[in-house]
């Protein structure tokens, strides 16, 4: 049986707040795989991976709906029962998300370069 993690452990592993993880459950983005007898949310390693993917998407400007659609597309592509049309649609959305992520990387790399240049410039004035 897979290890089940309580929300505090998941928060520590994902660097997301407990409030954010609960919100993602409330909006149906990532639902915990189980509940304890006392009603506590219990998460699997796969759930944690989904939350980490979401954490990576958020600062890149993906909306909750886009995150949901990407997770659905990944499920569609992983399923052996997926038809050709659904697989093609999921692959197209995944390609669009990949392109957006690449563009975000390019933008952030450029901004990081600017920050390093400024840091070097300002360091020359420190004593």
TrEMBL record:
Q: Is-annotated flag, keyword Chloroplast?
A: no
Pfam families reported in the protein's UniProt record: MerR_1 (PF13411)
Query: Which SMART domains does the UniProt record give?
Result: HTH_MERR
Write the record's keywords in alphabetical order, separated by commas. DNA-binding
Q: Which residues form a coiled coil?
A: none
Q: State the InterPro entries in the record.
A: DNA-bd_dom_put_sf, MerR-type_HTH_dom, MerR_fam
Please provide, alphabetically and separated by semicolons, the GO molecular function terms listed in this UniProt record: DNA binding; DNA-binding transcription factor activity
The signal peptide, as residue positions, is none
Query: Magnesium: present as a keyword of the record?
Result: no
Q: What is this protein called?
A: MerR family transcriptional regulator
The taxonomic lineage of its organism, from the top, reads: Bacteria, Bacillati, Actinomycetota, Actinomycetes, Mycobacteriales
